[in-house]
TrEMBL record, chain A:
Its EC number is 2.3.1.234. It is found in: Cytoplasm. Gene3D superfamilies: 3.30.420.40. Its main location: cytoplasm. It is an enzyme of class 2 (transferase). This is tRNA N6-adenosine threonylcarbamoyltransferase. The keyword Cytoplasm applies. Fe cation binds at residues 118, 122, 309. Required for the formation of a threonylcarbamoyl group on adenosine at position 37 (t(6)A37) in tRNAs that read codons beginning with adenine. Is involved in the transfer of the threonylcarbamoyl moiety of threonylcarbamoyl-AMP (TC-AMP) to the N6 group of A37, together with TsaE and TsaB. TsaD likely plays a direct catalytic role in this reaction. It catalyses: L-threonylcarbamoyladenylate + adenosine(37) in tRNA = N(6)-L-threonylcarbamoyladenosine(37) in tRNA + AMP + H(+).
From TrEMBL, chain B:
This is tRNA (Adenosine(37)-N6)-threonylcarbamoyltransferase complex dimerization subunit type 1 TsaB. The gene is tsaB. GO terms for cellular component: cytosol. One of its GO terms (molecular function) is transferase activity. PANTHER family: TRNA N6-ADENOSINE THREONYLCARBAMOYLTRANSFERASE (PTHR11735), TRNA THREONYLCARBAMOYLADENOSINE BIOSYNTHESIS PROTEIN TSAB (PTHR11735:SF11). Pfam families: TsaD (PF00814). InterPro entries: ATPase_NBD, Gcp-like_dom, T6A_TsaB.
Amino acid sequence: MEKNEKEILTLAVESSCDETSAAVLKGGRTVLSNIISTQIPVHQKFGGVVPEIASRKHIVNILPVVDEAVRQAGIRLQDIDQVAVTYGPGLVGALLVGVSAAKALAFSLDVPLIGVNHLEGHIFANFLSAPDLEPPFMALVVSGGHTALVDVRGYNHFHMMGQTRDDAAGEAFDKIARVMGLPYPGGPRIDALAARGNAMAIDFPQALTEKGNYEFSFSGLKSAVLNYINSEKMKGHALNQPDIAASFQRSVIEVLVGKAFQAVQETGRSTLVLAGGVAANSGLEQRLREAAEKRGVRFCYPDRILCTDNAAMIGCRGFYQSLAGGFSDLYLNAVPGLSLTDRNE
Amino acid sequence: MSILAIDTATQVSSVAVADENRLLAELTMQARLTHSETLMPHIQQVLRMASMPKEQLDGIAVSIGPGSFTGLRIGLAAAKAMAYALDLPIVGISTLKALACHYPVSGVRIVCMLDAQKGNAYVESYRWEAGRLVTLQPVRVMNIVEAVESCGRAAEPVVLLGDAVQKKVRGKIELPQGVTVAPPHLLMPRAACTAMLGVAELAAGHRDPVMSMEPVYIRRSEAEVLWEKRHPEAVRKERPAEEM
């Protein structure tokens, strides 16, 4: 591309779960627009995201969202230089709407297509919130389906320190919220309850805490909390929901904080970033910030809106991926089980 | 008027380029490849085969359902995005009606059956009268065995078409007298028919709203049906006059 890279306009599309989103970026860091149409109210009565309903909403919302993104960016659709799209992980039917539309847009506009890993997108949301952030840094990724520590050595050079073996932290949050009878989405409700509970009230287990182990496991913790709730109910005790939430959250947070700073220390990184949907958890963010201050480590986490599923972060990742030639062809397919892996391009 | 037509309602992937008088090119495949991978490369190929630059298209016709929910959305997402980016009019064409165009002859009852899962099909029946397609029985979800049985009561010969026939009828259910299954090349949807119906609709000035178009699902999602079973009071409040 002859155009100065700072002038490149990337149109990004994201439809991996229950948000339909489109964004326009100028260069890698300037967000001209970031439109998000959320379906949370639609799925609320079902107690979780219903894949078929999510897909039905995406197919109706996709073009209005793209059109609004182009309009708010103050450009013409024909000015777009490349199209980036989330191709996984996520709900397959939901991903397919975005992928199919993005491929047709790229083909119609005669511009390159970039298939983006949603989880890498979450990490790159930090570049949008912190304009001066540059690799290398350590990234703690905590989202609905994934928990991982990634050593970001360059824009296209990632080393996996470790990731979740079984349940991700987000899954444990959702499951426990459901058992406590909290409405979907459960994560923020637990976070709010935890804020007024006693975190030391109950001792829940922490797994894989030995030094140098960067893998995560939350299924044991999840079972312990569920068992505790059941046995309290059997004994006829009223549940102290704030204490349960606070104690559960403490267990999760201590594991995440402990491993994150061990990884920072081992690699000698001076910056830690938080990424993923659970980054919106105020308890986690606060503990990481305190721990970072104590150790003299810079701590970044994305603005609230960039923690949710949004296309701006996909555009940012897509832009940097394109600098290393990471383009896709028109055969690009959705990969619902896509994971984070090492990359060196 | 030259148009691109797309049909991904079943496991067949079919794209065609046509004008009012000619089918310029068609690419139809049933090779168990996923639509999501192959649709855009097929569109690119069929336009090249027809020597039709996409900028010279005058419209897009897309098979709008009923059919596989995911298949329909892949085709529609691509069709809508192309219509939007190339600033083309778009029209949705009934998958069942396009199938009925495989038998443009009078004196035959054409029964189109598209898979609706769990032994059911979306069934619609037609007859050609003086060059016009007349709907005898509007679309409804029927048990496949019962639908085939009921064809035996028709006064005229019946021909069965559609993926439900390919998967669940041909060689599996004994056909009543006077009922036949269409041969393989006429059994499944083809974008040529979508194109011919589409070009007529577009030439007549019909357009669907590209921004808000969605597939014709007929059926609601399982989750909604289950939820309503569990919350009958809420349903009465929400949808008082509608039947289930």
